[in-house]
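Troubleshooting log. The previous structure file for this entry was overwritten by mistake, so regenerating from the original sequence record. Sequence copied from the archived sheet and checked twice against the printout by T.R.
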Amino acid sequence: MMDDKDKISLEVAELFFLSFDGGIGEEQFARLEALLLNNPFAREHYYYLLQTVVELEETEEILHVERSDSLVGNFDTFLWKALAEDEKTAPAIAIVKPTPQREPVKMLKVEKSPRVINKSSLCTVIVSIAALVFVLIYVSLAPTPASSVAMITDSLNAQWVQSDHQTDIGGRLWDNEGARWLLKGTVKIEFDYGAEVIIEGPSEFELESADEMILHSGRLYVTIPKRATGFIVQTPSSTVIDLGTEFGLEINNIGSTNVYMFKGKASLIPGQNGDKGESHILVAGQAKAVTLSGQVREIELKKQAFVRKFDSKTGFLWRGEDEISLADVVGGGNGFGTGRPQRGVDPGAGETRTYGRHRERVYLTAANTYLPYEPHSFIDGVFVPSSSPNPQVVSSMGHTFSDCPKTNGEYFEGIINGGGLKGIGEKRALLLNGVDYGTRENPGIFMHANQGI
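Regenerated output below.
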């Protein structure tokens, strides 16, 4: 039985020769055009037939075989039988074998027969060739349809150079859209294949597919779950293929790439524009630099060089620091030194305040209350206990502290990052064993005894 390719080959051949001879109809020509546009195998077979015809047309010598009809006629059957009987009874005759004489071989020039070209056939062939050329050009030059490959899952203070691309949180990103420029800020992109990429501005990048991207300049941090192993990042001087890992990439102004491995391992392939070199396997704790010429060298691992986690709702941003400072969070920071001194939380209002200089203490009352604190996810809430017989609520989930000491329900100032100020130029010190814990180097929280956080 014929398979699909055999059927297509036969149909294309029939339509081809009909068009060549000028006998193709409109419906048949439309069918041929549809096959060439929609079927790669049909185009390949059509091109083969066309190439064969052209080669035959260009052949300079054509062998003509003349057919002789001298042996084709009405032979008498009786005559053939008589000759056969005579052959049986005739006496033998000695035949002298003549010496063969070689005659010089004469080269005969074969005149090429003039060929009559049917104008209609020629027109059809020209149209067919033009259609084929159009199909080949369209297939080779037509842009590949774009596909949705990733989504922006978070964005913090992001500013884009181009506004025609999707930049909102929750927006889908497509391949074949060209380069994107993140001027400043931080963006988190989750690829459909599973990779999570955090990009810091200024950076230029491009999405190739659901499991591949290009970083032209800037920096990014990649987190790869096991199900997404094989994620690829192309740079001007290298290719990084993930083997289940977390790594950071940064590209300097001259196109060199620095690769920092934090977890797992990856394959680093040096080379530019497809000129690939020998692969290097990087493991956790290693870092390498790759120049545009493909040279690879060891460099120091920068543990806090990349944003690894962030939350736009709370402003939290983590670069791999080992400890989080609650005092810094109280000061409106991300826990890693961005909080402001003298800034804190008012337990009577559940709001952020900046505390200045006070000449006298002002006591406030907020007995037996618990107020959730919305500005930062690391702080659930604040409270002021009292002498109430009711248990003190200490969380937004309703947890209570039944043995909380009884107070008069009064407090002064708030829960502050740093020591606070007693008066003009006079700082309250938070001294412990001679160390002041109200500084950026040694963070501490100042709070009255009748307060809780």
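Confidence is low (pLDDT under 50) at residues 60-83. Archived copy saved in two places this time.
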